[in-house]
Design brief:
There is one protein chain. Strands 1-2-4-3 form a 4-stranded mixed β-sheet, covered by helices on one side. Strands 5-6-8-7 form a 4-stranded mixed β-sheet. It has a 3-stranded mixed β-sheet with strand order 9-11-10, covered by helices on one side. It is 37% helix and 24% strand. The protein has 2 domains: 73 residues, no CATH class; 157 residues, 2-Layer Sandwich (Zincin-like). The N and C termini lie far apart (50 Å). The N terminus is likely disordered. By secondary structure, the protein is of the alpha/beta class. The protein is built from 6 helices and 11 strands. Bound molecules: zinc ion. The site of zinc ion has 3 residues, from loops.
Length: 254
């Protein structure tokens, strides 16, 4: 027999609701440490909708919360898609703009069947050597390079940012992973995962992401206390976040 208290329990996963002519599709994430009454809706820079809810929430409550914010969600998703529409897909050929630590460089591709694939910065150029002319080969060589740079730069910045935070005894374990919708995340166990493409962003944006994840070691949610701590350590973080959101569409997709 279904328990009336639990038969409507929401499960993490994908849901959708109709709103006028729109369908709002969203991913529900359940967070045991979240306050029972608190439910948060986010629209990511690429237009995905994420809902964070406490474990044990009913599906009816989740749906009602999304419905209540539906017009806000649709407006933000529309904005995000409009921004994406202006981003041309890369074709990884010479002359294209690429970014590293917030600076703009020009891609220069050399095809050399005898050489090993390589990638390096030289002056205003990111020089990529590949064995055959293919966007995939250039993309792969760049991904290897970005990951190497990310490992070094993000570890350095992590040490600097963590040093100023009294609740961080030592910089937490960190790993790099290509993610579709986010720059960083912090597991309940305290491991921080970062997107290697973060090294394309200016240093203050990198520091903002690191600080955000490090503050999660103290507050495992986006509560007012979380934002108070952010304000204390980086008063201008909202402006930095805006700048980073503007970079997200080119960086997270490449
Ligand atoms: Zn967060």
């Amino acid at each position: 027999m279904a328990d009336p208290q639990t038969h409507d329990l929401a499960r993490a996963g994908r849901y959708s609701i109709r709103y006028g002519d729109d369908v709002i599709a969203f991913a529900l994430r359940l967070q045991p440490q979240r306050q029972p009454s608190k439910l948060a809706v986010h629209v990511e820079p690429d237009g995905r909708v994420l809902v964070d809810a406490p474990e044990g929430v009913s599906q009816a409550i989740v749906m009602a919360a999304v419905r209540k914010r539906a017009s806000w969600i649709v407006r933000h998703v529309t904005d995000a898609r409009a921004r994406l529409a202006h981003v041309r897909p890369r074709d990884y050929t010479s002359g294209e703009a690429v970014h590293y630590l917030g600076r703009r460089y020009k891609l220069r591709v050399t095809v050399d069947p005898a050489a090993a694939a390589s990638c390096r910065l030289r002056g205003i150029f990111l020089e990529v050597t590949v064995r055959q002319r293919s966007a995939q080969a250039v993309r792969d060589a760049m991904a290897v390079w970005y990951r190497q740079r990310a490992r070094e730069v993000l570890r350095d910045r992590m040490d600097v940012v963590a040093r100023g935070l009294r609740w961080v005894q030592a910089p937490p374990p960190m790993r790099l992973q290509w993610m579709r919708v986010q720059w960083g995340s912090c597991s309940p166990g305290g491991r921080i995962t970062l997107h290697p493409a973060l090294v394309q962003a200016p240093r203050e944006c990198i520091d903002y992401v690191l600080l955000h994840e490090l503050v999660h070691l103290l507050h495992h949610n986006h509560s007012p206390a979380f934002y108070q701590t952010m304000d204390r350590h980086m008063p201008r973080w909202p402006a930095v976040k805006l700048k980073l959101d503007g970079l997200a569409e080119q960086a997270l997709r490449s």
